C-alpha cells in the first residue's frame, strides 16, 4: 500500500465523482492482484494441462496419456472408488450434520455452545489424524477392534469414517445457517392449520433448508473426493484418485500421468463447484426481509433426545483426539503401554524434526498476514472499485476458482510451472514463499467470500461521501473500511492460519529441506511406519491451531465491543 | 541464491520479502539428497563435519523412490549438489540420463570392486549394502499359530494368508530390490509366478520399505518384508521381532554416492565424496550395516543375522536399472489393482 503515497487525491476536475489519479491507483492495484491470481492459479493450471498432453521428453502426444490412463484398470478403478467414497461420505455426513444442526437450532437442549465448539474441532487437525486414531481403535491391535466384527478398517470403512470426521464441521456450518433463516410465520401458519410435527418437518422445515442441504452435500462430496490425508493413512490398498496422483508423481516419477489423473480429479470437483454456486444464489433469494426468527419451544422428550445425540457425536470427535494423544504418549504400543515423551523426539524421525513444526508456524503466520492483505484488498477493489469491468469480472471468476482445485492438483501444477528453468519466477521454487503462495491460493475462495460479504454490508455512500470530500480512496479504506470490517479480517486471517497449519495436499509437492512442515511430517512419519510420533506431531498442530483460535475469540470479543457498536445502533 | 536476491534489494515489495528467513552466510553449503534412514542423518553430517567443518550439509531425505523421482523431475534444473546414500540402481538410471558427474575419489582403490560404477572414472561409489530381510513378530505369530518362515517360498503357504506386508516397489527401493531379486533368482516366469502366489497372502503393500518391519514391530501385521537394518533397529528398540534371512538368497542394493552434474560447488562436492569412501566413513556405515564398501573393516552388527554376506545374491544392477521401468509397470498391472471395488 505504501506505493500509493505518491499519488495525491487533490488533483482532477472537481465535477467528477472521483479524482482520476485515484481511479488510476485503484486500477493499478486491481491489476496487480489480478496478475497475482493469474500467476498463482491460471498459468500453473494451464501448464499442467499441457503437460498432460506431453510425453516425459516434453513432446506433444495429444490424448495418448489419457488413452493409457483409461486402459490401465487399476487407475480406472480409482475413479469408481473415489466416487463411492464421496457418495457414502456425503450421505452419512449430511445426515449426521443435519440432525446436529437441528439440535443446535431447533431444540432447547442445554450446552449448545459447547456442542457446537466440539463439532468444529476437526477443522483444527490435518485429515491424516482421524486415520491414525482409527488404526489405534480398529487396527489389528486396536483398542476396540471387536466392534468391527472382523471387518477391515484399512480400506473404504476407515476412509469413510475419517472423512465423516473431517467434513462434519463444513456441512454443519452450512446447515446451521440454512436452519437459522427459517421464518417463524410459516411454522405458526402450519401449527394453526393443525399440521402434525412430522408433517411440518416434511412440508416446512425440509423445503426451507433444501438449498443448504444441497450445498452441504456438494461441499462434503468435493472435500472427501479430493482429500488425500485419510486415504493415505487408512486406505490400505483401496486406491482413490488423490492417492493415485501422489503415487504417480512421487512413487513412479510419472509426472505426465500425475497431470492426467489431476485433470480427471478436476471433473467431479469442478462439477460440484458449479452446482454449489447455482444453489448458493438461490439460497439468498429465500431470505425475506419480513421473516421472523424462529424461537424453538421447549419439548422435554425431543430436547433430551437431541442432547443424547449431541453427546454421542461429541464423544466420537473427542474420542478421536483423545486416542491420538494417548497414542502419542504410549512408549511402544501395544507391548509397552507405559507413558512418556519418547515419541516427541521428532529429530530422530522422518519429516524434518521439530524444525518442521516451527516452519509450519512461520508459514501459517506469513499466510495469515499476506493472505489477508491480498484477499481483502482484492475483494475491496472488486466490490468498491470503478471501471475496468471485464478485469473485475475475470478477477471474480479467478477468485472463485480455487474452490474447485484440489490442493494436490495445485501443488503439481506449481512444480510444472515454477520449476521450469525458463520461468523467471523459478527462484521461488523450494522457498517458503512458494508454500505461502500455494496455501493462500488454495484457500483463496472462502477468504474472498468472507471479505466480499463483509464489504457488501457497508453502504457505498461511504465512498461517495469520501470522494465528494476529495479524500483519496485509500484513506477511506484505511480509516473506515478496515475498522468496520475488522471482524471479517480477523476471521480471514485465522481461517488462513489454521488451514496453513493443517493442509497437506497444497504443500506436499512443494516443501524443501529448509521448509519441511509439520503436516507433511505427520504424513512422512506415518509413511515410514512411525505412527506414534505422527500422532504426536498431529496433536501439536491441533494444540497450536486451537490456541490461536482461542486467542482469536478473545481478541475479536475485545475488538467487537470497540469497533462494532454501530451494528447495534443500526439494528435498533 | 534466494537469500542474496532478497537480501540485496531491500526495497522489494513487501509481498515478496517473506522469502528472506534462512539467511546463513557461513561456509559452503551442499544440498545433499539421500534415502539414508532419518535417525542416521545427524550422525553422518556430524562425523563429516569433524573433518570438514567448513562444509554444511543440507539434507533432503525421503524414500528411495521419492528421492529418485525428485532428482529426475529436477533434471533440467538440478537442486542437489551431491547424492549421498541412494540406491545404486537409481544412480545407474541417472547415469543413463547424463545427470551424474563422473569422479574418481581419493581412496577409490580401497573399495570392494562391487562397490563402484564400472565406468572409469566411476559415476558413483558404493557405501554399504542394504539387504532384504523378513521381520517376524513372535508374539503375533504365536497367537496365530504361524510357523517361522525360513524361505521366500514359505511365505506363499496358505497359512500366512493376510499376515504379510511388503513395500510397493514403485515407491520403495526395498520393494524394488525384492522384486528384482526374485526375478533374478527364480527367472522371469518363476519370479512372477512366485509373486502371484505371494500376492494371495499379502495383506497390504506399503509406500516405504521400513514400514512393513515397523508394522510387524507393532503387531499390526505378523510378517513384514523389509530390510535387515530396520529389523535390527526395531529389535534393539525392544520389539518382539525375529529377523529372517530367507534361504534362497536375498536381494540387495547398495547405498551409493555421486556428484550431480552441473553443481556449482564441485570442490566441496568432491571433498564430500572423498570422505564418503574413507575408512572413517566405512566404519560409520558399519555401525548400522554389516556389509560395507571396505569389507575388511566390517565388524558384526548387533541383532543383525550373521549369514548375510553369503546370502546376498549376485545382483545384476545394470539389468535391474535397465528393466526397472518395465518391471514396475508389470508389477503395477498385476498387483496394484487389489482395489477393485468390492461388492
Fold topology:
The complex is a heterodimer of chains A (572) and B (343).
Chain A: H1 20-51, H2 64-70, H3 73-106, H4 112-120, H5 128-138, H6 156-180, H7 184-192, H8 197-226, H9 229-234, H10 241-251, H11 255-286, H12 300-329, E1 330-332, E2 336-339, H13 353-384, H14 389-400, H15 407-418, H16 432-442, H17 444-456, H18 461-468, H19 473-484, H20 486-502, H21 518-527, H22 531-563, H23 565-571
Antiparallel strand pairs in A: 1-2
Helix pairs in contact in A: 1-13, 1-14, 1-15, 3-6, 3-8, 3-12, 5-6, 5-12, 5-22, 6-8, 8-11, 10-11, 11-15, 12-22, 13-16, 13-17, 13-20, 13-21, 15-16, 17-20, 20-22, 21-22
Chain B: H1 2-8, E1 28-34, H2 38-51, E2 55-61, H3 64-73, E3 82-87, H4 88-96, E4 100-101, E5 125-137, H5 138-143, E6 164-167, H6 173-201, E7 202-206, H7 211-218, E8 223-227, H8 228-236, E9 241-244, E10 252-260, H9 266-276, H10 279-286, H11 308-311, H12 317-335
Helix pairs in contact in B: 4-12, 6-12
What does this protein look like?
The complex is a heterodimer of chains A (572) and B (343). Chain A is mainly α and 572 residues long. Chain A has two domains: 20-50 and 347-565, Orthogonal Bundle (MetI-like fold); 74-335, MetI-like fold. Chain A contains 23 helices and two strands. Chain A has helices at 20-51, 64-70, 73-106, 112-120, 128-138, 156-180, 184-192, 197-226, 229-234, 241-251, 255-286, 300-329, 353-384, 389-400, 407-418, 432-442, 444-456, 461-468, 473-484, 486-502, 518-527, 531-563, 565-571, and strands at 330-332, 336-339. Chain A has a two-stranded antiparallel sheet with strand order 1-2. In chain A, strand 1 and strand 2 form a beta hairpin. Chain A is globular. Chain B has 343 residues and is of the alpha/beta class. Chain B has two domains: 2-129 and 254-305, D-Maltodextrin-Binding Protein, domain 2 (3-Layer(aba) Sandwich), CATH 3.40.190; 131-252 and 316-335, Periplasmic binding protein-like II (D-Maltodextrin-Binding Protein, domain 2, 3-Layer(aba) Sandwich), CATH 3.40.190. In chain B, 39% of the residues lie in helices and 18% in strands. Chain B contains twelve helices and ten strands. Chain B has helices at 2-8, 38-51, 64-73, 88-96, 138-143, 173-201, 211-218, 228-236, 266-276, 279-286, 308-311, 317-335, and strands at residues 28-34, 55-61, 82-87, 100-101, 125-137, 164-167, 202-206, 223-227, 241-244, 252-260. In chain B, helix 6 links the parallel strand 6 and strand 7. In chain B, helix 4 packs across helix 12 and helix 6 packs across helix 12. Chain B is globular, with a radius of gyration of 21 Å. Chain B starts with a helix and ends in an 8-residue tail after the last helix. Mean pLDDT of chain B is 87; it is low at 1-25 and 339-343. The chains are: A mainly alpha (572), B alpha/beta (343). Chains A and B meet through helix 3, helix 10, helix 13 and helix 16 of A and helix 2, strand 2, helix 3, strand 7 and helix 7 of B.
Amino acid at each position: 500500500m505504501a506505493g500509493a503515497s505518491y499519488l495525491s487525491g487533490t488533483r482532477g476536475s472537481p465535477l467528477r465523482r472521483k479524482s482520476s489519479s485515484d481511479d488510476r491507483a485503484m486500477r493499478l492495484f486491481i491489476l496487480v492482484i489480478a496478475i497475482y491470481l493469474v500467476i498463482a492459479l491460471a498459468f500453473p493450471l494451464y501448464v499442467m494441462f499441457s503437460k498432460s498432453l506431453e510425453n516425459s521428453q516434453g513432446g506433444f502426444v495429444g490424448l495418448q496419456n489419457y488413452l493409457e490412463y483409461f486402459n490401465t484398470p487399476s487407475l480406472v478403478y480409482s475413479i469408481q472408488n473415489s466416487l463411492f467414497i464421496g457418495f457414502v461420505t456425503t450421505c452419512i455426513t449430511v445426515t449426521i450434520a443435519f440432525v446436529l444442526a437441528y439440535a443446535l437450532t431447533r431444540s432447547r437442549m442445554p450446552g449448545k455452545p459447547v456442542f457446537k465448539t466440539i463439532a468444529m474441532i476437526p477443522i483444527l487437525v490435518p485429515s491424516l489424524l482421524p486415520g491414525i486414531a482409527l488404526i489405534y481403535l480398529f487396527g489389528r491391535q486396536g483398542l476396540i477392534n471387536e466392534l468391527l466384527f472382523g471387518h477391515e478398517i484399512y480400506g473404504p470403512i476407515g476412509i469413510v469414517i475419517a472423512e465423516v470426521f473431517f467434513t462434519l464441521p463444513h456441512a454443519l456450518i452450512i446447515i446451521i445457517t440454512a436452519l437459522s433463516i427459517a421464518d417463524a410465520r410459516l411454522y405458526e401458519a402450519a401449527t394453526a392449520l393443525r399440521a402434525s410435527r412430522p408433517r411440518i418437518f416434511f412440508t416446512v422445515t425440509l423445503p426451507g433448508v433444501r438449498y443448504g442441504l444441497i450445498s452441504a452435500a456438494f461441499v462434503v462430496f468435493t472435500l472427501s473426493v479430493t482429500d488425500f490425508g485419510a486415504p493415505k493413512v487408512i486406505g490400505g490398498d483401496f486406491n482413490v484418485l488423490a492417492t493415485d496422483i501422489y503415487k504417480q508423481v512421487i512413487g513412479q516419477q510419472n509426472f505426465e500421468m500425475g497431470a492426467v489423473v489431476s485433470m480427471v480429479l478436476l471433473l467431479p470437483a469442478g462439477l460440484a463447484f458449479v452446482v454449489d454456486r447455482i444453489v448458493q444464489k438461490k439460497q439468498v433469494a429465500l431470505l425475506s426481509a419480513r421473516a421472523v426468527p424462529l424461537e424453538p419451544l421447549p419439548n422435554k422428550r425431543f430436547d433430551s433426545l437431541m442432547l443424547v445425540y449431541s453427546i454421542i457425536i461429541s464423544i466420537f470427535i473427542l474420542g478421536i483426539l483423545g486416542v491420538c494423544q494417548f497414542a502419542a504418549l504410549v512408549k511402544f504400543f501395544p507391548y509397552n503401554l507405559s507413558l512418556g515423551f519418547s515419541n516427541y523426539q521428532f529429530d530422530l524421525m522422518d519429516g524434518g524434526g521439530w524444525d518442521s513444526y516451527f516452519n509450519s508456524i512461520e508459514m501459517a503466520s506469513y499466510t495469515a498476514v499476506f493472505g489477508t492483505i491480498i484477499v481483502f484488498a482484492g475483494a475491496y477493489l472488486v466490490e468498491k472499485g470503478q471501471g475496468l469491468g471485464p478485469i473485475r469480472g475475470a478477477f471474480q471468476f479467478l477468485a472463485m476458482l480455487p474452490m474447485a482445485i484440489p490442493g494436490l492438483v495445485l501443488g503439481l501444477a506449481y512444480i510444472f510451472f515454477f520449476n521450469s528453468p525458463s520461468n523467471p519466477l523459478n527462484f521461488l521454487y523450494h522457498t517458503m514463499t512458494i508454500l505461502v503462495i500455494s496455501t493462500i491460493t488454495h484457500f483463496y475462495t472462502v477468504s474472498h467470500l468472507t471479505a466480499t460479504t463483509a464489504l457488501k454490508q457497508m453502504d457505498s455512500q461511504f465512498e461517495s461521501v469520501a470522494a465528494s470530500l476529495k479524500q483519496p480512496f485509500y484513506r477511506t479504506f484505511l480509516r473506515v473500511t478496515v475498522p468496520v470490517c475488522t471482524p471479517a479480517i480477523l476471521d480471514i486471517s485465522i481461517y488462513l492460519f489454521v488451514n496453513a497449519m493443517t493442509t497437506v495436499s497444497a504443500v506436499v509437492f512443494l516443501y524443501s529441506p529448509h521448509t519441511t512442515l509439520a503436516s507433511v511430517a505427520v504424513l512422512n512419519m506415518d509413511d515410514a511406519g512411525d505412527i506414534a510420533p505422527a500422532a504426536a506431531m498431529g496433536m501439536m498442530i491441533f494444540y497450536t491451531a486451537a490456541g490461536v483460535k482461542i486467542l482469536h475469540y478473545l481478541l475479536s470479543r475485545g475488538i467487537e465491543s470497540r469497533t462494532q457498536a454501530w451494528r447495534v445502533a443500526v439494528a435498533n | 541464491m534466494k537469500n542474496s536476491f532478497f537480501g540485496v534489494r531491500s526495497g522489494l515489495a513487501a509481498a515478496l520479502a517473506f522469502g528472506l528467513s534462512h539467511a546463513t552466510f557461513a561456509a559452503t553449503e551442499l544440498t545433499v539428497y539421500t534415502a539414508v534412514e532419518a535417525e542416521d542423518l545427524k550422525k553422518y553430517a556430524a562425523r563429516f563435519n569433524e573433518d570438514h567443518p567448513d562444509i554444511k550439509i543440507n539434507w533432503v531425505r525421503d524414500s528411495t523412490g521419492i528421492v529418485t523421482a525428485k532428482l529426475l523431475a529436477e533434471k533440467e534444473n538440478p537442486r542437489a549438489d551431491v547424492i549421498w546414500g541412494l540406491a545404486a540402481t537409481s544412480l545407474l538410471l541417472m547415469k543413463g540420463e547424463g545427470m551424474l558427474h563422473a569422479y574418481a575419489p581419493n581412496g577409490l582403490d580401497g573399495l570392494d570392486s562391487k562397490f563402484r560404477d564400472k565406468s572409469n572414472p566411476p559415476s558413483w561409489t558404493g557405501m554399504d549394502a542394504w539387504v532384504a530381510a523378513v521381520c517376524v513378530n513372535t508374539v503375533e505369530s504365536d497367537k496365530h499359530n504361524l510357523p517361522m518362515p525360513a524361505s521366500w517360498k514359505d511365505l506363499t503357504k496358505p497359512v500366512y494368508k493376510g499376515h504379510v506386508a511388503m513395500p510397493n516397489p514403485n515407491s520403495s527401493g526395498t520393494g524394488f530390490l525384492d522384486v528384482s531379486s526374485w526375478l533374478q533368482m527364480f527367472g522371469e516366469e518363476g519370479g512372477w509366478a512366485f509373486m502371484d502366489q505371494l500376492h494371495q497372502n499379502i495383506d497390504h503393500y506399503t509406500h516405504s520399505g521400513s514400514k512393513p518391519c515397523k508394522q510387524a514391530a507393532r503387531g499390526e501385521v505378523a510378517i513384514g518384508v523389509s530390510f535387515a537394518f530396520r529389523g535390527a533397529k526395531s529389535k534393539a528398540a525392544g520389539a518382539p521381532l525375529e529377523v529372517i534371512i530367507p534361504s534362497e538368497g536375498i536381494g540387495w542394493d547398495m547405498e551409493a554416492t555421486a556428484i550431480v552434474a552441473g553443481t556449482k560447488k564441485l570442490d566441496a562436492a568432491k571433498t564430500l565424496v572423498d570422505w564418503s569412501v574413507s575408512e572413517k566413513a566405512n566404519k560409520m556405515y558399519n555401525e548400522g550395516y554389516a556389509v560395507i564398501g571396505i569389507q575388511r573393516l566390517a565388524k558384526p552388527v548387533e541383532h543383525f543375522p550373521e549369514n548375510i554376506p553369503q546370502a546376498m545374491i549376485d545382483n545384476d544392477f545394470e539389468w535391474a536399472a535397465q528393466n526397472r521401468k518395465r518391471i514396475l509397470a508389470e508389477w503395477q498391472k498385476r498387483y496394484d489393482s487389489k482395489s477393485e471395488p468390492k461388492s
